[in-house]
């Protein structure tokens, strides 16, 4: 992952960014709460009362975080993420996101086989027969335990349908 | 003494070869469901339920409860080894269990967890045996204001002192409350914060958040540091187990306190989750090594485990005596009781003493059987850590997502886990505390319901929280605990300020 | 999802040959029982009882898988059903919330997204008070509730069957109740036993244990006729000794909750017929009779048009209340 080489994400920038995102989340919560009445009537707080103030508190505390970032993390040279670290994260998280997308399309069993096989051969540099054995074996083991023993159906896709399983 | 003779009759029912065999089978199945992703005690028990329709009720309940004990122990295993708590009540175990395992002391961590859990469970059964009639009446005193007071006390004991920025603690905890609000509101029946997205109607499951925050978040952190599990050599030897047993007496204060908290919360019934969090919080606060908590402190494993299990066992009493299920698993068992033709409630003790006392006796034996069996599996599970990371890493990912899928059988939750994973990673790197978020998600909606029910009962008057001795006492203890750091600072100033200076940060 | 499933069904049909398609519809893979309540709830026991009856009596070759989807008062399960249109492998178990929930909350499904299979029993509602309470009968109780401070009435959930009944009683008598919603009928039962509330309107099964132990007692049942006789429950009282509310002078004759089973809309008619057959057989077994007896429900089995007209009448009655109370969102 050479593309991140030399790049550095500073802690200060990340503190500000996170503060902004949580403030936005707080605003969305407060906004969602206004639909239900945010006051206090004779039967106590209305449905929107707690969410509204929860959202408001998040916004205020997030602003506090941002302010604190200026006093504590500005120009300190603290690093949130180096290029090298980012590369490692992407190398791990990329296949994971692809795995989730594959789950939604093809079901959990096929996706886990493909994912385990790909990670073992490409990143783990295992030999193909061993990787195939482990990945297919894991899928079958999960199938037997979940579907056959405990009758908990997991997400299945077109491949299982073609094979006539469930 | 009447209880004692009843118990002896109970033992004569429970101590048959057939029942011991059932216990062993139940415990082993339970450990399996506890360790497997997405299968918890409630699943396990409901899957076994159809099998028990043809059994005698005593054998059936022994099978189901043994499975429950096994699943509780199994759940602690994944908390410690992979940072993925199988049940809400084992979240607090991850705080110190996982770091200790990462230090290469997985065997030590697991053994400690199982032993304290076993002691907690036995303590719980002892309390049930001795106090059954008195305790059943006590639980009836609890109404919404008392429940709110208990949840308030849990928050107060857990969130008082921490090293994180107070702003970050507030953000984290309030986000937890916000997530807990999503979905149907019990009190008004309206759908809150769903923004017309059908997938949000059911709310955001606490388990999804935990799998993302702890499981995926931790993996991202591990990867980024370039650390790999295969660098850790988990020492696996039976001698390690024995050594850990020898260290146990050192924790007797923590054990006793945790067991008492657990029983109190199990009976009242605040539940095992509140118990484990409260116990962890108090252990941290009153320990001389408070700063070591979260970095693999043994007492940080002992406290939540002992409280969790003593609450879990003593919660069986309200279920049997009053028909209040303290947990999802207890609810399923109650369903079983009805299918077998028994009615949970005060009359059960009078009409079917053989059943009730047979069950109580089986809880003694079952927990001993469970501890022995689960200790035998320690080397097996600890050796999992020896598998190369490029295999076990992706397998943990798969395990996390299988677990997430089984919560609601929906694909939306898979994306949610990814999102929570990112939040967990960023929050940990920026020193946002994650525990308050989780605690708020678990107890937030319950606390809100109890508060609003109290307000409806009292027509909007806050005085209801000091309206009788019971609720007033719990609330006052809560307020004192919240103010504890300030009080402690005052005391140490008065006494000349020797010893450790407590941090005065209120967050 | 739907297109995937129908492809799957089509593929199955091809694999298993055209002969199967000619014959009556029959499940060839596990059937999912979708329970619109959490584990341990009334609907859960209902679905699992059916599951155990089917297994014991071999009423169906395909295995049964029970899935709990109780989020949002059961809306989660119905949304799931609506999302599986045309899939005959999802049998949805519920109550009258299937057609009433969409009136009081904006949800992601319409009642018409599911077709009725059967209504298998009617659960009764009673007014219960604490055993120590001074009210001898329903008249005493209503009089007490007419005082300015009113009485505290607990129930399960908000704007659901319990609260609807409380507001019907309120309108019929002019009494004043403060309604306190709890998570379940079981919680409302314990709160009544502890005398934290003045009354609840629980189903028989939810208060059975406490009544037996003499902690609570029933005042009257909201039914046209008294309940079926059975063994003595508390003292010399059995279920049939409880007067109907009408007898006691409370002008609310009938209020019952059906235990319903649905299939997603768009499934083949043969599939509906198949499950109607299975459920008809199930409700004739002794196991079903003992379930009915144990939970003190009324044994009334409705399918097809009978069920449709029951649903329509029940819906109209409830919607009147929703409109009056201002709960309706549509």
SSE pattern of chain C: HHEHEHEHEEHEHEHEHEEHHEH
DSSP strand tally of chain B: 2
How far do the termini of chain B sit from each other?
A: 49 Å
Task: Provide the succession of SSEs of chain B.
Answer: HHHHHHHEEHHHHHHHHHHHHH
**Major sheet of chain C, described briefly?**
6 strands, mixed
User: Could you estimate the helical fraction of the residues of chain C in percent?
Assistant: 40-55%
Q: Which pair of protein chains has the largest interface, and what are the residue counts?
A: A-B, 66 and 63 residues
Contiguous low-pLDDT stretches of chain B (5 residues minimum) are: 497-507
| Distance between the ends of chain C | 28 Å
Strand order of the largest sheet of chain C: 2-1-3-10-4-11
* Strands of chain C, total number: 11
Structural class of chain B: mainly alpha
Q: How much of the residues of chain C is beta strand, in percent?
A: 15-25%
Strand order of the largest sheet of chain B: 1-2
* Average residue-wise pLDDT of chain B: 83
The number of helical elements of chain B comes to 20
What does this structure look like?
Chain C: Belongs to the UPF0065 (bug) family. Chain C: This is Tricarboxylate transporter. Chain C: Keywords: Signal. Chain C: Residues 1-23 form the signal peptide. Chain C: Pfam families: TctC. Chain B: Residues 21-439 form the DUF112 domain. The complex is a heterotrimer of chains A (166), B (507) and C (330). Chain A is mainly alpha-helical. Chain A contains 6 helices and 4 strands; from the N terminus they run βαββαβαααα. Chain A has 2 domains: 2-82, no CATH class; 107-163, no CATH class. Chain A has helices at residues 11-33, 49-72, 83-106, 108-123, 128-149, 158-163, and strands at residues 8-10, 40-41, 44-45, 79-82. In chain A, β2 and β3 (44-45) form a beta hairpin. Chain B has a two-stranded antiparallel sheet with strand order 1-2. Chain B has a domain at 2-154 and 206-406. Chain B has 507 residues and is an all-alpha fold. In chain B, α1 packs across α16, α4 (57-82) runs antiparallel to α5 (91-139) and α4 (57-82) packs antiparallel against α14 (328-339). Chain B has helices at residues 2-14, 17-35, 41-52, 57-82, 91-139, 144-158, 166-181, 206-224, 238-247, 252-267, 272-286, 299-314, 316-322, 328-339, 346-351, 353-382, 389-408, 412-429, 435-457, 469-494; strands spanning 183-184, 191-192. Chain B is globular. The longest helix of chain B has 49 residues, at 91-139. In chain B, β1 and β2 form a beta hairpin. The model of chain B is unreliable at 497-507 (pLDDT under 50). Chain C has 2 domains: 2-123 and 256-325, Bordetella uptake gene, domain 1 (D-Maltodextrin-Binding Protein, domain 2); 126-241, D-Maltodextrin-Binding Protein, domain 2 (3-Layer(aba) Sandwich), CATH 3.40.190. Chain C starts with a helix and ends in a 5-residue tail after the last helix. Chain C has helices at 2-15, 18-22, 42-57, 75-83, 97-104, 138-145, 161-173, 185-193, 204-212, 269-282, 286-294, 304-325, and strands at 31-35, 64-68, 90-94, 114-124, 126-130, 151-156, 177-182, 199-200, 216-221, 256-264, 302-303. Chain C contains 12 helices and 11 strands. Chain C is α/β, with parallel strands linked by helices and 330 residues long. The longest helix of chain C is centred in the C-terminal third of the chain and has 22 residues, at 304-325. In chain C, the strands form 2 sheets. A 6-stranded mixed beta sheet of chain C has the order 2-1-3-10-4-11, with helices on both faces. A 5-stranded mixed beta sheet of chain C has the order 7-6-8-5-9, with helices on both faces. The chains are: A mainly alpha (166), B mainly alpha (507), C alpha/beta (330). At the A-B interface, α1, β2, β3, α2 and α3 of A face α3, α7, α8, α17 and α18 of B.
């Amino acid at each position: 992952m050479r593309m991140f080489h030399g790049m550095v994400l500073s802690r200060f920038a990340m503190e500000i960014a996170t503060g902004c995102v949580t403030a936005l989340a707080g605003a969305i919560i407060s906004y969602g709460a206004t639909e239900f009445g945010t006051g206090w009537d004779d039967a106590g707080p209305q449905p929107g009362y707690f969410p509204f103030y929860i959202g408001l508190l998040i916004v205020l505390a997030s602003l506090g975080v941002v302010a604190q970032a200026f006093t504590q993390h500005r120009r300190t040279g603290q690093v949130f993420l180096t290029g090298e670290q980012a590369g490692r994260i992407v190398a791990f998280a990329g296949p994971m996101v692809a795995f989730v997308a594959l789950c939604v399309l093809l079901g959990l069993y096929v996706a886990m086989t493909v994912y385990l096989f790909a990670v073992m051969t490409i990143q783990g540099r295992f030999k193909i027969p061993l990787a195939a054995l482990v990945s297919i074996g894991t899928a079958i083991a999960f199938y037997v335990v979940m579907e056959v023993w405990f009758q908990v159906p997991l997400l299945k896709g077109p491949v299982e349908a073609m094979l006539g399983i469930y | 003494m009447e209880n004692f003779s009843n118990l002896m009759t109970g033992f004569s029912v429970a101590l048959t070869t057939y029942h011991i065999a059932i216990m062993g089978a139940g415990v082993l199945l339970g450990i399996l469901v506890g360790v497997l992703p997405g299968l918890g005690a409630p699943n396990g028990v409901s899957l076994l339920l159809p099998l028990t329709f043809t059994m005698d009720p005593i054998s059936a309940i022994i099978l189901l409860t043994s499975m429950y004990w096994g699943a509780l122990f199994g759940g602690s295993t994944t908390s410690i080894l992979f940072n993925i708590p199988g049940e809400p009540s084992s979240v607090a175990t991850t705080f110190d269990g996982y770091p200790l395992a990462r230090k290469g002391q997985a065997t030590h961590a697991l053994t400690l967890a199982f032993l304290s859990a076993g002691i907690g469970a036995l303590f719980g059964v002892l309390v049930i045996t001795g106090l059954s009639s008195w305790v059943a009446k006590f639980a009836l005193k609890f109404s919404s204001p008392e429940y709110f007071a208990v949840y308030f006390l849990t928050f107060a004991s857990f969130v008082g002192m921490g090293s994180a920025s107070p702003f970050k603690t507030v953000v984290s905890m309030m986000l937890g409350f916000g997530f807990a609000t999503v979905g149907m509101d019990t009190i008004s029946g309206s759908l809150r914060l769903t923004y017309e997205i059908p997938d949000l109607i059911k709310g955001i499951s606490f388990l999804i958040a935990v799998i993302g925050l702890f499981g995926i978040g931790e993996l991202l952190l591990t990867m980024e540091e370039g650390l790999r599990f295969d660098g850790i050599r988990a020492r696996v030897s039976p001698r390690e187990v024995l050594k850990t047993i020898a260290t146990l007496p050192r924790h007797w204060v923590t054990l006793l306190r945790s067991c008492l908290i657990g029983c109190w919360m199990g009976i009242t019934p605040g539940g095992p989750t509140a118990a484990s969090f409260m116990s962890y919080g108090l252990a941290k606060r009153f320990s001389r090594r408070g700063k070591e908590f979260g970095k693999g402190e043994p007492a940080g494993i002992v406290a939540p485990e002992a409280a969790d299990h003593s609450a879990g066992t003593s919660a069986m009493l309200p279920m049997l005596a009053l028909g209040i299920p303290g947990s999802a698993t207890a609810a399923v068992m109650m369903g079983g009781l009805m299918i077998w033709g028994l009615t949970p409630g005060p009359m059960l003790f009078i009409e079917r003493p053989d059943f009730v006392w047979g069950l109580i006796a089986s809880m003694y034996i079952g927990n001993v059987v469970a501890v022995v069996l689960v200790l035998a599996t320690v080397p097996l599970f600890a050796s999992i850590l020896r598998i190369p990371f490029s295999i076990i890493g992706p397998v943990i990912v798969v395990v996390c997502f299988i677990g997430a899928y089984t919560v609601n059988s929906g694909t939306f939750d898979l994306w949610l886990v990814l999102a929570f994973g990112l939040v967990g990673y960023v929050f940990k790197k920026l020193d946002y505390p994650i525990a308050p978020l989780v605690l708020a998600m678990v107890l937030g909606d319950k606390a809100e319901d109890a508060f609003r029910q109290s307000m409806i009962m009292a027509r909007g008057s806050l005085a209801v929280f000091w309206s009788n001795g019971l609720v007033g006492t719990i609330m006052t203890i809560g307020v004192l605990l919240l103010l504890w750091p300030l009080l402690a600072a005052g005391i140490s100033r008065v006494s000349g300020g020797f010893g450790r200076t407590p941090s005065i940060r209120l967050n | 999802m739907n297109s995937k499933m129908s492809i799957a069904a089509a593929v199955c049909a091809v694999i298993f040959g055209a002969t199967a398609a000619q014959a009556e519809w029959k499940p060839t893979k596990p059937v999912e029982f979708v329970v619109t309540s959490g584990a341990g709830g009334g609907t859960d026991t209902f679905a699992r009882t059916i599951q155990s009856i089917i297994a014991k009596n071999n009423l169906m070759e395909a295995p049964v898988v029970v899935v709990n989807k109780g989020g949002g008062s059961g809306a989660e399960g119905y949304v799931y059903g609506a999302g599986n249109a045309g899939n005959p492998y999802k049998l949805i178990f519920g109550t009258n919330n299937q057609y009433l929930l969409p009136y009081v909350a904006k949800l992601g499904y319409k009642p018409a997204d599911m077709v009725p299979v059967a209504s298998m029993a009617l659960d009764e509602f009673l007014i219960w008070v604490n055993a120590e309470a001074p009210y001898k009968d329903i008249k005493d109780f209503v009089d007490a509730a007419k005082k300015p401070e009113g009485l505290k009435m607990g129930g399960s959930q908000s704007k659901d069957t319990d609260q609807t009944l409380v507001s019907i009683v309120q309108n019929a008598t002019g009494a004043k109740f403060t309604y306190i919603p709890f998570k379940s009928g079981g919680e409302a039962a314990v709160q009544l036993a502890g005398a934290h509330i003045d009354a609840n309107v629980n189903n028989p099964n939810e208060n059975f244990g406490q009544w037996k132990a003499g902690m609570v007692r029933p005042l009257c049942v909201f039914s046209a006729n008294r309940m079926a006789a059975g063994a003595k429950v508390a003292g010399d009282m059995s279920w049939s000794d409880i007067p109907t509310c009408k007898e006691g002078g409370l002008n609310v004759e009938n209020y019952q909750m059906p235990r319903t089973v649905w299939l997603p809309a768009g499934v083949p008619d043969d599939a509906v017929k198949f499950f109607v057959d299975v459920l008809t057989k199930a409700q004739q077994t002794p196991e079903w009779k003992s379930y009915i007896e144990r939970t003190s429900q009324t044994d009334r089995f409705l399918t097809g048009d009978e069920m449709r007209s029951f649903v329509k009448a029940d819906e109209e009655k409830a919607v009147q209340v929703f409109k009056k109370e201002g709960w309706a969102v549509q």
